[in-house]
Structure formats: C-alpha cells, structure tokens
Amino acid sequence: MKFxxxxxxxxxGAILAHAVKTASxxxxxxxxxxxxxxxxxxxxxxxxxxxxRLEAGDLTEDDAAARLASAIAPDHLRISPAAxxxxxxxxxxxxxxxxxSTVVGRVNRIDPAITLACLPDxxxxxxxxxxxxxxxxxxxxxxxxxxxxxAVLRAQPAFEVKPFAPRRVALIATQLPSLKVQVMxxxxxxLAARLARSGSDLATERRVAHREEAVAEAIAExxxxxxxxxxxxxxxxxxxxxxVPAAIRRAxxxxxxxxxxxxxxxxLVLGRLDEIPVVGAPxxxxxxxxxxxxxxxxxxxxxxxxxxxxxxxxxxGGLLKEIPTRPQPREAAVAPRRGPVSIVVLAAGRASRMGxxxxxxxxxxxxxxxxxxxxxxxxxxxxxxxxxxKVIVVTGHREPEIRAALAGLPVTFVSNPDFASGMxxxxxxxxxxxxxxxxxxxxxxxxxxxxxxxxxxxxxxxxDAESGAAVVRAVAEGQRGNPVILPRSTFGAVRQLVGDVGAxxxxxxxxxxxxxxxxxxxxxxxxxxxxxxxxxxxxxxE
Length: 542
What we know:
By secondary structure, the protein is α/β, with parallel strands linked by helices. The chain is 27% helix and 27% strand.
C-alpha cells in the first residue's frame, strides 16, 4: 500500500485516509473515490487528497478483518460484519471464556497492522457479551500477512466459550457452636445464587457435625444423586489431613489439591469421588464478593477439571482483595440490551426508624391496603402495560408477614437472610432473581407511595431510548431520587456491593451516560417515620 498526498486528478480508485466534507455531502475515511466524487471535489476547489493506494496482493481493512474472522471457529460465538477495519466477537451462550495467550500473541506478532484483543483467560461471560475484537490498523494490509494470521487461527483456537452445563448440586455444611445458624442460612442462599447463573440447582443441603466421619458419611450418601458436592466447613482447613480433605478420602475419594494462590480463596480443597467433583469451599465463599472459589466453580460448571498445575498457575492475577470490580468491554451500538427490564422491589429492611418493634412501615395500611402491597401492585401495573415482564420482591425482616401481605400477586420472591447488613445485600439478592435475558434492573423501594405505574413506564421508556446503554434515574426538581434503572453492564459491580450502601457510587462511577427523568416530589418521598406514615394518610399496625 502506498500512502500519502496525491493530486485530485490522479486519485480515482484510491481510498480516502481522512474524511472530506463538501457543501452537499461528506466522504468518510475509507471511502473508495469515484470519478463522480472527484468531480464534486473539484467544484469545491480541492486540489489534493491524502489517500491509500492498494498494491498487488493488498486487502482493504474490512476485507482483511473479515478474512481473519472467518478463520475463527464460530461455536458459541457471534461475529459482527467488518466495519472500519474492525470485527467484534460476542458470546452466544453463558459460560466460561477460555483464551490462549500463545495463539493471540502469535497473531499479533505477524505484523503491527493486524491486532487481536480479547478478554482475560477463564472469565465467565453472558450471552451477548463482547469477548474479542479484530482491528486492522491501516486502511489496507498485505494479503500475505492476513493469510499467515488466518492460518494460525485455523490451526489452533485463540479462544472459545465453554457453555455452563446445569448441575444438580449438594451442599454439606458442618456445624460448631461458634457458627451462627444465620451464617449457614446465608451461605446456602449465596451458593444457590452462584449456581443459578449456570442454570444449576442446589438440590440438597445436609448439616452435619464438624467431624471427619460425619462429613464422609454425607458425601458417600449424596454422591449417587448429585453431579457436584460442595462442603462448607465450620472451621477453615488448616492441613491436608484436616476434616474436609480427610473426609473425602474416607468416603472413598481422592484429594487432588489443597490450597490455592488466590486471595481471598487460599483455603480451597478440590477432590473427587470417581467423576463427581467434591469442593471444600474456603470461608470467603460465604460472601458474594469474587474469590477463588468462583474461579474453580466456573471451571467445573463449564466441564473443565482443574489439575494442580492449573490451580498453582492462578497466582498472577490472584490478588483480588483490592479489586472492587472487573469491567469488560461493551459496545452498545452492536450489542443492544438482550431483553426487557425487570423490576426489583426492595422490601427486606428492618424499618428501624419506626419505633417499637411491633410496627413495620411496609405493613401500614392505606385505604385498607398494606403499603408493600400497594407498591408491588404499582410495579405489576407497569408489567401489564407491557414495558417489563417480571417483578421480583426481596424480603427479609418479618418475611412471613410481608409475603402474606402480597398473597396472590404474580411476583417472584427472593429471600435475603442477610438483610440486617444493609441495602447492598438486598440489591445482590434481587439481582440473583433476574432472568438471563434481563437487559436492566429497575430498583424500586417499597416505601414510596407516590410512585405510579406511569412513572415506571416513563423510566423504562427512557431506558429503551438509550438502547439499554445508560443509567436512568428519577429526579425531583433536578435532585436525584428513586427509582433507578441499572443496565446489564453494571451487574458485575452490583454483585460486589457490601454493607449499608446502595447503588449510588455505581451510578456515578460506571462511566455510562446518566439520564434523569423528572418525576416531581414522588421521586424523593419515602416513609421512614410514624409521622411520615400519618402525614401520607397511612395507619400503622401493630
């Protein structure tokens, strides 16, 4: 390829290196010039253009990118058409993205004109996520380099998506007096949420004494009806002969590895009974934060069986404590949101400002209807308008009474046993109830009586107008309020939330556009005190 300025009279058939604008039209970069183009440019006193002129064997940037993309096996991948020298590659299944740094490196070392970038090796992805991109830097590239790179990609996969396969999972939890029952309940809920992302089912929980023989007996009994066994010890593993690894061996299995160079996640045990994996989970897996257990679980659910070499290689990148989130590249214009918005109604809090324990603001009645039911009926009315397809209600404090107040309503309940820790746990719990196809999560507080179905419809309409690529927030005279819609690209950050915090810092730091929708005073009125309940016309019930 020859690149540089040429006289207008000799530019026919060349490729524009920079866009040129005339009074009547714009010729974009990469445009192949025609005689009509040159006539138009001559009339605007353009005498010279910077162009690329192909030589024998050259391929244009789009032809080169498309040819490289055609060498990639399309299993569980979607490849975009080439445009401006770029081809983007997307996952078509939820699973584990596996990449070969050797192959990607070989492609990138053929010539600087050819680039291939992808996600890190062994990260979980959802259908629709962008996992790789091919970019041709100049406007054209010698075809011999393209063929060499294509041959590398055909000879060995640079990357693939291994779909998660649903598993029937058993949880064995050991008990000690020092371990609270509430912690064990939370562990069960979080493990179920982790498994749900792959379509797997936490079919059985067995609680046993923290003794080798008790754990071994449970493993032996559960192996026949399950595809995977997870053991949470009441006390951390301190030795390869400690209770959990010893129990695996006593049950007739073998222990492949104890410990891993991932923090948090060091104290993991990986064993097996024939073809049934048995994982001794580290204590950090009782938290929703990403840890080494997630990495091993994802591999098992994708059909891999990590060996000691795989596990010991995880040290580089294994320091997770200071990494609050792991963003992944997105391209909203090519990959719009995958499905409708789901509404998550938060109804798990303790209502601590309401005074005596017997009174709960969400059970306060307005015209004989509990506040929580009134709020959920508002959300369901938006569903009936066709703007959303699912309403999820997160419950926790006084859960039986809250659910009884919602009896007969077509909602999905999600329990949050950790509601006392604050709002973050309810957001994470609500996220676990979303379908795979959800394009966004509308977070609605259950104590905002001024919010109407029309308000929700307006918020979701604004989200649709942005193709699901923006945060949409209710405001009152410009002051931020609620509800808020979080797009799919923020879900990973939501899962990292802990403590009594909401999604405000995600909204402000996610880098996405923020669209404010004026709802008036309703966006900022919530009922946190008995006086507020009375002023709004409600009656507190004991």
